[in-house]
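Pilot study result, target chain (28 residues):
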Amino acid sequence: MAKKKVFVSFDWDNDKNYKFLLQAWDAN
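Predicted structure:
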């Protein structure tokens, strides 16, 4: 979960796109 915050930190612009990918990773 810590990595999620990191992604949001430096990928805030793509946070919405990454959120979808992160959700897929979470599901896996």
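One observation from the pilot: The helical segments are 2-10, 15-27. A full batch analysis is planned for the follow-on phase.
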